[in-house]
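Working notes for the structural subgroup meeting. M.R. asked for a predicted model of this chain before we commit to crystallization trials. I am recording the input and output together here so anyone reviewing the notebook later can reproduce the run.

Input as submitted:
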Amino acid sequence: MRASRQRAVALALCAALLPVQLGAAPTKPPAPDPCQQALAFEKRAADGSAAPNDAYAAARDGLDTNEHCTDAEMHLITKGYLLSMLAISEHALDKGDWRMHFLQADALLIQCERLKTVPPSVTSDCRLQQSYNRGLASLWARESFPSPPPR
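Returned structure, recorded in token form:
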């Protein structure tokens, strides 16, 4: 009986190792995490060397992907940044509603500032992005409505 047990263990071990030794395809890797994918899109959209069309596409793709992120804090923060990047690229491309997207981004970034469960550096970054958003929105609003010529 002992010999049959040893043989069964040996066969199981061979069966487990055989595909590896024969170069069989490895098992399929787990699906990428949508939170991390959205973050990667945000980084691509924020890349200063990206063309406005590429930044716009990355922001849009990131927002779509971020809808599947199940980490509530990461979802909120990433969405705030992605909306900021979307607004910037919309302004550069003269399409979409950059004003509305800045407002939506800032509402999320304000929530980010109030999170107690993230490191202070994260809340500080959210505050900084909101400051950038407001500065750009103010600058672009003045460009849209030039001062009247002097009399």
